[in-house]
Design a protein that fits this description.
mainly alpha, MotA_ExbB_proton_chnl, transmembrane helix
């Protein structure tokens, strides 16, 4: 399954919002990396924003899943009898947005941890 299909299956609205959080996280990561490695500035301010954007991606994915499941359960209630295969397929699709958000969160956590460690070592070396 290609990424474009997954994007639309996960719901374009929430997947777009999660992507925006991911892009924001990457922008702040690049900015902090440039400060550290190119400009040689050692300031920890703003590093927490990387983790914030990653966290927002997870929460947005979970919110999208919750809203999607509520709508699906409402449709199931109206329809009455639904096959287990159809239900399993719907549950699988409902996990796309949270997994996407979790991937962005894991990436942000790794970047945040590396930058925090590098900043700490630079500060200790300057003392």
């Amino acid at each position: 399954m290609n990424p474009v299909e997954l994007f639309y299956m996960g719901g374009p609205l929430f997947m777009s919002i999660i992507t925006i959080w991911g892009v924001g996280m990457l922008i702040f990561s690049i900015q902090k990396g440039m400060h550290l490695f190119v400009q040689k500035k050692v300031t920890k301010s703003g590093v927490g924003l990387i983790l914030l954007f990653g966290s927002l991606a997870v929460v947005t994915g979970l919110l999208g899943q919750a809203i999607g499941l509520m709508m699906a359960f409402s449709a199931i209630q109206v329809a009455g009898d639904v096959s287990p295969a159809l239900l399993a397929g719907g549950l699988r699709v409902s996990l796309i947005a949270p997994v996407y958000g979790l991937l962005i969160f894991v990436l942000s956590l790794v970047i945040w941890g590396v930058l925090k460690e590098v900043y700490q070592r630079k500060l200790e070396a300057n003392e």
